[in-house]
C-alpha cells in the first residue's frame, strides 16, 4: 500500500470528491481526519472506514481556529500529521452583476483563505514529517464559466498560492505543495444542482460529446485515484505543479463544429 502509516486531513470529506479521497487514502494504508458540515453523512463515512482509520470533525472550515483544531485532532489521535488535502469549497453561481462584497468574501474565505490557514497551522508537522499539501482546485481557475465568477476567482487564487508555496516551502523546508484541477465531476451535489436548474433526474446518462467526449463525466473515485501519487513518497521532489483532470485540454482544444448548444455545465 502506498500510504501506509501516513496521517492525512481531508477537508470537505463528508460528500463528493472529498469523501472519495478519504476512502481511497484509507485503502492505501493511511489514517484520515474526515471533515465537513454534515454530521450524519460524516458518521456514515467513518462507519464505512472504521473508527481505527478515521476520525470525524464537523465545523465550518472558515471558523476562527478551525484549522488549528483539525491539526490538533490529528496529532492527538495518531501522534503526527503527514499531509493535508484542501478540498472543502463552496460552488455557487455568481456574475459581476449579482456578486456583492459579502458574497465574494465568503467564497474567498472558504475556497482560498481556509486552505492557506490550514497549511499554516499544519506547517510544523509537515516540515517534521517531510509532508505534502494537495490543493483541490478547478479548471475554472483559468477563467471560469460566465456564471461562476466568484468561484473562479477563488480557484485562480488557490492555483497561484499552490505554485508560490510549492516553490518556497519545498526549497526551504522540504514540504511539497501541488494541485489538481478537476473538470466536470459527477458528485451528489452536481446531480442536485443540475436538477435544480430544470434538468431531468437522469441528465448525466446521455451527455453530448461536446461536453463529455467519453459520453459521461468524471467520477469522484477517478479523481481520488489521481491524488495518491501526490500524497505518496513516490512523487519524490515534485512540487509546485498544477495538473488538470478533464476529458479535453484547457488550451488547444479542438471544438467540434456542431458545438452550438447551451452548455450543461
UniProtKB/TrEMBL annotation:
Organism per entry: Algoriphagus machipongonensis
Pfam families (alphabetical): adh_short_C2 (PF13561)
InterPro entries: NAD(P)-bd_dom_sf, Sc_DH/Rdtase_CS, SDR_fam
The family this protein is said to belong to: Belongs to the short-chain dehydrogenases/reductases (SDR) family.
Coiled coil: none
PROSITE patterns, per the entry: ADH_SHORT
This protein's name: Oxidoreductase, short-chain dehydrogenase/reductase family
Amino acid at each position: 500500500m502506498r500510504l501506509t502509516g501516513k496521517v492525512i486531513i481531508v477537508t470537505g470529506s463528508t460528500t463528493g470528491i472529498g469523501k472519495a479521497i478519504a476512502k481511497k487514502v484509507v485503502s492505501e494504508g493511511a489514517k484520515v481526519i474526515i471533515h465537513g458540515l454534515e454530521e450524519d453523512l460524516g458518521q456514515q463515512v467513518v462507519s464505512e472506514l472504521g473508527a481505527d482509520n478515521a476520525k470525524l470533525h464537523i465545523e465550518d472550515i472558515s471558523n476562527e481556529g478551525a484549522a488549528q483544531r483539525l491539526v490538533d485532532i490529528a496529532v492527538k489521535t495518531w501522534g503526527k500529521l503527514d499531509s493535508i488535502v484542501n478540498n472543502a469549497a463552496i460552488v455557487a453561481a455568481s456574475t459581476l452583476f449579482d456578486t456583492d462584497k459579502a458574497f465574494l468574501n465568503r467564497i474567498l474565505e472558504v475556497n482560498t483563505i481556509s486552505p492557506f490557514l490550514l497549511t499554516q497551522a499544519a506547517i510544523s508537522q509537515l516540515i517534521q514529517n517531510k509532508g505534502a499539501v494537495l490543493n483541490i482546485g478547478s479548471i475554472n481557475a483559468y477563467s471560469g464559466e460566465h456564471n461562476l465568477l466568484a468561484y473562479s476567482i477563488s480557484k485562480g487564487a488557490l492555483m497561484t498560492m499552490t505554485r508560490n508555496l510549492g516553490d518556497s516551502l519545498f526549497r526551504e523546508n522540504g514540504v511539497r505543495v501541488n494541485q489538481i484541477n478537476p473538470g466536470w465531476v459527477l458528485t451528489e451535489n452536481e446531480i442536485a444542482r443540475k436538477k435544480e436548474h430544470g434538468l431531468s433526474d437522469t441528465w448525466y446518462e446521455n451527455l453530448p460529446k461536446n461536453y463529455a467526449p467519453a459520453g459521461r463525466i468524471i467520477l469522484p473515485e477517478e479523481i481520488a485515484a489521481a491524488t495518491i501519487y501526490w500524497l505518496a513518497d513516490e512523487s519524490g521532489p515534485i512540487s509546485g505543479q498544477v495538473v488538470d483532470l478533464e476529458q479535453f485540454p484547457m488550451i488547444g482544444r479542438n471544438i467540434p463544429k456542431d458545438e452550438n448548444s447551451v452548455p450543461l455545465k
